[in-house]
Amino acid sequence: MQRAAEAQFGHAELALLLKALAFAAAKHRDQRRKDAGASPYINHPIALADVLVNEGRVHEVTVLAAALLHDTLEDTETNPAEIEAGFGAAILRVVQEVSDDKSLDKAERKRLQIEHAAELSREAKLVKLADKICNLRDVAESPPANWSLERKREYYDWAKQVIDALRGVHRELEAVFDRAYANRPA
Ligand code: NDP
Ligand code: ZN
Asked: Within 13 Å, how many C-alpha atoms sit on residue 88's CB side?
């Protein structure tokens, strides 16, 4: 039997998702991830959407579009008004919820992610879960160049504190996170 959530994709939903993917690809076009091979940045938002659909069976367009756009405000010159005009206020709100305030120093941003996780909307929690799953996998499989073992472990433990603060939103994806965390570098 098909789940109700799986029956909702029509032209409008697919069109919005591909528009979000194309928008993110254009915004991140000159950026690379921090791994030694300098992967194209867009691989990361695609990985979030892949985890949400294929491991979490999340089929909400708002969540998937926000996942594709999740690093545009934080890491590119994107203006919130562009996201609102192209994708609407609901998607903009989720992207804003998962964006750090870059005017704060890094330690404060990390502390605030833990502090604010419980207050996020359900949609933002799902994006945050997928982001941390993907980043733990990246730290295990293709880590930022020059990260020490200690730094990798610190990253795992910080990510777990963020996710522990938002649990109760999606049992399957939380289990996916726990399996990723089980690969914490020893
Ligand atoms: P981060 O710890 O913030 O870097 C990780 C972030 O980079 C991820 O959250 C991810 O964010 C992005 N990213 C890009 N490529 C990769 C990849 N291949 N694998 C994993 N993540 C990737 O690093 P910062 O340089 O910002 O340092 C922040 C904190 O690190 C400091 O506050 C300090 O506490 C700590 N630190 C620890 C050191 C140590 O040796 N123990 C040394 C220096 C700092 P996204 O998905 O948003 O792109
Ligand atoms: Zn991210």
From this structure: 11
Are residues 127 and 98 in contact, defined by beta-carbon separation less than 8 angstroms? yes
114 burial level (CB within 10 Å; 0-12, 13-18, 19+): middle
User: Which atom number of ligand 1 is nearest to the Cα of residue 158?
Assistant: 2
Which residues, listed in sequence order, are joined to residue 40 by a DSSP beta bridge? 32
What is the 1 CA–ligand 2 centroid distance (Å)?
34
* 46-55 pLDDT, tens digit each: 999 999 999 9
The 10s digit of each residue's pLDDT in 84-105 is 999 999 999 999 999 999 999 9
Cα of 121 to ligand 2 centre, how many Å?
17
Which residue do the tokens 């098909």 mark? 2
Domain with residues 11-181, CATH architecture:
Orthogonal Bundle (1.10)
